[in-house]
Amino acid sequence: MNSYSDEFLRQILNRTKVVAVVGMSPNPVRPSYYVARYLQLKGMRVIPVNPGHAGKTVLGEEIFADLASIPKDVPVDMVDIFRRSEHVQPIVEEALACLPGLRTVWMQIGVHNEEAAEAARAAGLDVIMDRCPKIEYQRLFGELRMGGFATGVISSKL
Questions:
Q1: Measuring CA to CA, how many Å separate 21 from each of 44, 82, 117, 119, 152?
Q2: Which structural domains are found in the chain, ordered by start?
Q3: Average pLDDT of the chain to the nearest whole number
Q4: Which of 13, 39, 48, 115 lies deepest, with the highest CB count within 10 Å?
């Protein structure tokens, strides 16, 4: 498992303004959706990337087929990858080629690709693997409570 200092993670989360979420689903029960929604609630702009839903809208943003389709005037500074590890290398290569303001490549829980990570680091980017920005944000900024729940009340009532 990769070890990242709390200060390193906090710095990345504080500076990030625009996140391209690769593999984002418009389905609200999918982790990619609720992580993106959470980041949006924290003030980040979320740019959804999913070729199967390109042209649709989710969370008020157009879904793009790939990173290259994101308009050049959108200053993406982090790519959050919700794809299997074996699919990460071409995503990182595309990000390096078409996102000039990119500062961070973030791979979700269970996602590792050391070759892609090395390419991103060689380009001067910060890399996080096998972590979730939502969980890290909640942990680092005091939003998690006992048991990992981010609410003050646990109830099955609507």
A1: 12, 7, 17, 19, 28
A2: 6-148 (3.40.50.720)
A3: 92
A4: 48
